[in-house]
Design brief:
This protein is α/β, with parallel strands linked by helices. The protein has six helices and seven strands, in the order E-H-E-E-H-E-H-E-H-E-H-H-E. 43% of the residues are buried.
Length: 237
Amino acid sequence: MTNTGQKVAIITGASQGIGAGLVEAYRAHGWAVVATSRAIAESQDADVLTIQGDIADRATAERVVAAGVDRFGRVDTLVNNAGIFISKGFTDFTEDDYDVVLGVNVAGFFRISQLAIEQMLRQGGGHIVQITTSLVEHPNSNVPSVLASLSKGGLQAATKALAIEYASRNIRSNAVALGTIKTPMHPEEHHETLAGLHPMGRMGEISDITDAVIYLENAPFVTGVILPVDGGQTAGH
């Protein structure tokens, strides 16, 4: 255990895109990070512990939290960033689609959040952040995505429920609801179309999301908030 009062964040889905950006953002603020995803490379940074595993598997959640506490001695924030998005017409979704989306987006949130909150209660406080989608509040006929709404909508409801359950015990719970962000998930030839979905006429950058999460990190009187970072989509069209 090497921690000397340094704060520690666990970030899921941390190998690329927004997750990798979150690792960098927390490190830039002096935090140690436990970074997990199915295929994450070992870090050369002594303050970044990487753990490979499928977050849909309860055993992964247990390894991640235990290893983080073992290495750094505490868990101050959990960012539930891992997520799977599949856009299909409702009747086209398969049983496999259902299992994989609910496995990562819901089961992958549930166990690691329980374990992180147990540790936060021992420490006297903490923060959890869910990464969701603005499609929950603002469905779009051009992007049919009932499984995203079912899973991420559940996370948004759970975000508020956790905020209230633990408000008196110094544990905050918030969510960031994304528009479409420029990540490796979206091929460049689709960027113009995706930009047009947003009233601001552009896609989001990874830094737009990391800035929002760091804002919530540094906002001790903010809990139970679903913060849209979506170029105006939630407001209307």
